[in-house]
Amino acid sequence: MSEAFDCAKCSESLYGRKYIQTDDGPYCVPCYDNTFANTCAECQQLIGHDSRELFYEDRHFHEGCFRCCRCQRSLADEPFTCQDSELLCNDCYCSAFSSQCSACGETVMPGSRKLEYGGQTWHEHCFLCSGCEQPLGSRSFVPDKGAHYCVPCYENKFAPRCARCSKTLTQGGVTYRDQPWHRECLVCTGCQTPLAGQQFTSRDDDPYCVDCFGELFAPKCSSCKRPITEHPVRIPSLGPDPSPLPPLPED
């Protein structure tokens, strides 16, 4: 009489049937799956012994159930991301959660270099100076009405220019006859002494220090022979919004 060869779970004979051997004994296929198989987190069905099983963060999946929750692309052999317990392929993740470049409109891929300013995002190579169109990168820039300029382009385009040398004034400066001047450019027409912060007067729009004006143009006192000069003026420094000077005395 042959020895019994029964399923360790249901005790049915396994002679002539497919079975799976375990440390606890042999199991018929249905009993084995019911006892040991994991439940698919997607379809809630058992993952049979003959199915390819995928595992991610304490969740088990049939191979066919392991897919992007948006486009349904299989993630079995694809890079993916988990967002709020949902599996997403890289394309869907970038489309849903990544920023769009304000210049080219393309997605700024996770991990790529990007620049952010004023609530907007750019690819590093798309963030360009509105003047020279060179990448700004980590360089200093000046925003102006939605545009962005490197410092040289901004100064060349917007900074005031000296009435004498026509070069830009980046800081400091003085105002004379409602025009900006470099402090070093506003000098006495006669002796070339700097006039910024000093008392001076003018003739034919040319500024003169008090001494030169007196020597060159002022009438001389018949008694002491010294020049009789008008009241000179003192010019203010050029601020962010310089105010015009009062009219100069007539010659």
TrEMBL record:
Q: Which Gene3D superfamilies match?
A: Cysteine Rich Protein (2.10.110.10)
Under InterPro entries, the record lists:
LIM_FHL1/2/3/5_N, Znf_LIM
Ranges for the LIM zinc-binding domain?
38-98, 99-160, 161-219
Which terms under GO biological process does the entry name?
Answer: actin cytoskeleton organization
User: Function of this protein?
Assistant: Recruited by SOX15 to FOXK1 promoters where it acts as a transcriptional coactivator of FOXK1.
Keyword line:
Acetylation, Activator, Cytoplasm, LIM domain, Metal-binding, Nucleus, Repeat, Transcription, Transcription regulation, Zinc, Zinc-finger
Q: How is the quaternary structure described?
A: Interacts with SOX15; the interaction recruits FHL3 to FOXK1 promoters where it acts as a transcriptional coactivator of FOXK1.
- Which one of the record's GO molecular function terms can you name? transcription coregulator activity
Q: Name one GO cellular component term.
A: Z disc
The protein depicted here goes by the name: Four and a half LIM domains protein 3
Q: Where in the cell is it found?
A: Cytoplasm; Nucleus
